[in-house]
Amino acid sequence: MAEDSKFPYFLLGLGVGFVAGILVAPRSGDETIQYLKERADEGKEYLKDRVGEGKEYLSRQQESLKSTAQDAVEKGREALLRQKEQIAAAYDAGRQAYRDSVGNAAASAESVRGQGESI
Asked: How far apart are the C-alpha atoms of 88 and 80, rounded to whole Å?
């Protein structure tokens, strides 16, 4: 409730400030309006420039992030390909070792059978 009672004082202060500003303004009304328009235009141009700079900055950051992401994806693909090749090589080595051991076991069995027949 205390805040509600402050609002009329705010409006009163705003009105008094406005009237005092007009009374003590160093320029005529038309000159003051023109001055305010010029300042508003300057502010608008400043904001446009800042927005343009911000857009350029964001564009550069986007390109940088895109490049970094592409590099990461490419490195991931290369790592995956290396792992795939290593797994394939290990699989082939395992198959060859199995064939060698089966071949050696068969040869040993033949050798043992051959010795049994000669006895």
From this structure: 12
